[in-house]
Amino acid sequence: MDESPERNPFGRLPKYFLRGAVITLPVVLTVWIAWEAVTWVDSWLGIPIPGLGLVVVIAGIMLVGLLATNVVTRAALGTLDEIFVRLPLLRLLYTAAKDLMNAFAGDKRGFNSAVRVRVDPDKDFWVLGFITAEDISQLGLPGHVAVYLPQSYNFAGQLILVPTSQVERIETAGTELMKFIVSGGVAGKDA
Questions:
Q1: Whole-structure pTM over 0.70, yes or no?
Q2: Would you tell me how many other CB atoms lie within 10 Å of the CB of residue 28?
């Protein structure tokens, strides 16, 4: 006579393994990626003390941020910005990276206006995103807005243009909505 998996301790092993993998894998993956990044920065800088390269890079970025508040440095950074914007090949890369950083952390954050969009006015089907442009009449679409739809488990997304009537603002922080979308809707759930 066979014992049910609930009564047989060996029948529970696959369940325990899966539960352990769900807990262990994200931790191990995060630690491994962080270690690889630190090792790469250390080797790139040629500093033999583990982790010191990363500290140097973070300190350097903070120093640039500090110096950017100085009038003289701000003028020099403005000149450097103008040079990069005028170089044909670098302009595309530089402005895209600058716009992306400003969207997430700059003075003109672009992901503050959290919304849900009814994809089909006749159906109860919604997507979550952020309004990135309130007026796109220059594209021949008056009464429409540009909505960025981030993808789950990915650092990509789509930009859709929809009538304003199909967009509803959501009372939530942009960072919380982004976390919810990128995690596939599982972020914030109690374990």
A1: no
A2: 11
